[in-house]
Write a structure and sequence with these properties.
With 51 residues, the chain is an alpha+beta fold. Helix content is 31%, strand content 12%. It has one domain. It has helices at residues 2-5, 36-47; strands at residues 18-20, 27-29. The chain has a two-stranded antiparallel sheet. The longest helix has 12 residues, at 36-47.
Length: 51
């Protein structure tokens, strides 16, 4: 509806990508303030403590 009206109340919110762990099915929300690679790198570091 936003495309037709351009009214902010119809704008989509919460449209950040999710990281899906294919081994566990875990969903990890990311954000939109940084490039995608930032969130991927951060997630991968979380998987490998000590790096």
């Amino acid at each position: 509806m936003y495309r037709e009206t351009r009214e902010i109340r119809y704008a989509l919110v919460g449209n950040a990508p999710l990281i899906v762990n294919k081994h566990t099915g875990e969903l990890r929300p990311t954000g939109t303030a940084q490039p995608k690679g930032y969130y991927i790198d951060r997630y991968e570091r979380m998987l490998k403590p000590g790096l």
